[in-house]
Amino acid sequence: KMIRYTKKTREILNFIDKYGFITSKICANIFYKNNKYGLTQARDTLNRIAKNGDIVVSGNTKDYGREQIYQFTKKLVSKHDYYILNFYSKVYSLVDKIDEFHLEQHWMGGKRRSDGLIVFTNIVDDVEYKKAYFIECDFTHKTDKEKYIEIYDSGEVQAYFKKVYDNEIFPSVIQIAYSDKENIESNDNFDVIGLDYDCNNLVSKILIA
């Protein structure tokens, strides 16, 4: 029988449409935030939508263990997108507001590209604290050391943040890799922060740093 689509169900389908896939963990972090049984509920909802024929389930056991991937049509999910969306969902579950998040953000007329960009807000004692980070997933290749120096020197990012947030900042760079040791050095203009694939030190390195 047809299932009744709630606002949440439609939002989940929109997420899959935008990013190409979802997993129950990502779904729980974003759509069942602060919910004790979020993972179970996310899995039930996704399986119900799949049973209805709107999405397909695939398990890429070689890359992602026993985790199921939910999509509109079966396609290979790049590890790159998988780890960045996992990171995004973990941040989403821990902060008060996501101001913006982009996969593959182009700069300098497309000459340079960051794997991701995230801006979020935490509210402490009624005061808003905003943080912004570029995201690099070093799965197949190490991030080019010159990339962010060039982006910084172009001034485009600082102008963007001035226009949108009235604050001329240049975000720190998060490198997601096998270990949490960054391979680009921080410099006077921006910090580089290493995270492992599971984002184990996310809270200490990103949220309260």
Write the layout of secondary structure elements.
Elements: H1 7-19, H2 24-31, H3 38-51, E1 56-59, H4 61-64, E2 68-71, H5 79-94, E3 97-107, E4 112-124, E5 127-137, H6 147-154, H7 156-165, E6 172-177, E7 192-196, H8 202-207
Parallel strand pairs: 5-6, 6-7
Antiparallel strand pairs: 1-2, 3-4, 4-5
Q: What does this protein structure show overall?
A:
It contains 8 helices and 7 strands, in the order αααβαβαβββααββα. The longest helix has 16 residues, at 79-94. The model has no long low-confidence stretch (mean pLDDT 89). The N and C termini lie far apart (50 Å). Helices cover 38% and strands 26% of the residues. By secondary structure, the protein is an alpha/beta fold. It has a 5-stranded mixed β-sheet.
List keywords for this structure.
single chain, 209 residues, alpha/beta, five-stranded mixed β-sheet, two-stranded antiparallel ribbon, 26% strand, globular
